């Protein structure tokens, strides 16, 4: 049997509202049988703070800092915590819950999809592996994350190099379709990242930022040679094809598809009611 062919889209740098609208549109089209399973690569212009679907802006986010840095701001349709999308490769995977290779459990499906990212790290010559929370304390911290910062929290099948998290992902299931998207960090500006959130005190902020260094790392901090965005794209495109055992067929968005995406962006992701509502 030949390998299954999935659609591959690289939309380059786009606005935060377009990025979230396209992920939602891909989910819609796949649920309607209009497109095959799809993998998408993208970036952000401007650099953007995205927050999880359930986060409370007034309690957790320092909007003054977001504005001072000239960052975009958008709420994702997926859960999880705040992510600063700056020096990174962002990916999304859209596939039916009924796909024969997709396990029913969220955790196991996450592991299968993340196999593509794992292989991508291997193509970059990095010794990445899946971490599984082992202690009861680690498992409890999954249920009650103390931090609003995504890369600060452990989760099942997290991708780790040298004991530190190198990719953060979130998943939602709607209309019978899995949407998983995530960040693969090339570089990270910790001071900027930590200024975007609210803390009970300056001491707590300092403690969390210090602990963060032991929990998360960007590719170029540990890579022997500096990795460019294009090199990362090539490695992870190969990684997804290999990890999911698929062929990837590059495609552009059609004018009709772009119209649909822009409509969702305008009606949902550009609205304060969506971004600030919780």
TrEMBL record:
SUPFAM superfamilies: Class II aaRS and biotin synthetases. PROSITE patterns: BPL_LPL_CATALYTIC (PS51733). It comes from the Bacteria. Keywords: Acyltransferase, Ligase, Transferase. GO terms for molecular function: ligase activity; lipoyl(octanoyl) transferase activity. The keyword Acyltransferase applies. Residues 33-248 form the BPL/LPL catalytic domain. The active site is at 150 (acyl-thioester intermediate). The record marks 165 as: Lowers pKa of active site Cys. The keyword NADP does not apply. GO terms for biological process: lipoate biosynthetic process; protein lipoylation. It catalyses: octanoyl-[ACP] + L-lysyl-[protein] = N(6)-octanoyl-L-lysyl-[protein] + holo-[ACP] + H(+). Pfam families: LplA-B_cat. Its EC number is 2.3.1.181. Pathway: Protein modification; protein lipoylation via endogenous pathway; protein N(6)-(lipoyl)lysine from octanoyl-[acyl-carrier-protein]. It is an enzyme of class 2 (transferase). In the reaction, the free carboxyl group of octanoic acid is attached via an amide linkage to the epsilon-amino group of a specific lysine residue of lipoyl domains of lipoate-dependent enzymes. The reaction proceeds via an octanoyl-thioester enzyme intermediate. Catalyzes the transfer of endogenously produced octanoic acid from octanoyl-acyl-carrier-protein onto the lipoyl domain of GcvH, an intermediate carrier during protein lipoylation. Monomer. Belongs to the octanoyltransferase LipM family. This is Octanoyltransferase LipM. It comes from Cytobacillus depressus. The gene is lipM.
């Amino acid at each position: 049997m030949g390998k299954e062919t999935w659609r591959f889209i690289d939309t380059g740098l786009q606005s935060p509202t377009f990025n979230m609208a396209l992920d939602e549109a891909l989910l819609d089209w796949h649920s309607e049988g209009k497109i095959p399973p799809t993998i998408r690569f993208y970036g952000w212009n401007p650099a953007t703070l995205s927050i999880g679907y359930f986060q409370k802006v007034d309690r957790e986010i320092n909007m003054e800092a977001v504005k001072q840095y000239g960052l975009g701001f958008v709420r994702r349709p997926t859960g999880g915590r705040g992510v600063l999308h700056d020096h990174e490769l962002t990916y999304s995977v859209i596939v039916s819950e009924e796909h024969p290779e997709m396990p029913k459990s969220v955790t196991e499906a996450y592991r299968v999809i993340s196999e593509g990212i794992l292989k991508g790290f291997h193509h970059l010559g990095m010794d990445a592996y899946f971490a599984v929370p082992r202690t009861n304390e680690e498992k409890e911290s999954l249920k009650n994350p103390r931090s609003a910062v995504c890369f600060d929290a452990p989760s099942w099948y997290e991708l780790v190099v040298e004991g530190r998290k190198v990719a953060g992902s979130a998943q939602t299931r709607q209309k019978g379709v899995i949407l998983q998207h995530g960040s693969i960090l090339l570089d990270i500006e910790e001071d900027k990242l930590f200024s975007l959130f609210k803390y009970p005190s300056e001491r707590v902020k300092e403690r969390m930022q210090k602990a963060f260094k032991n929990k998360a790392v960007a590719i170029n901090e540990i890579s022997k040679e500096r990795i460019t965005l294009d090199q990362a794209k090539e490695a992870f495109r190969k990684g997804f094809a290999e990890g999911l055992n698929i062929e990837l067929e590059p495609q552009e968005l059609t004018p009709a598809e772009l119209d649909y995406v822009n409509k969702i962006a305008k009606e949902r992701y550009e609205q304060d009611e969506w971004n600030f509502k919780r």
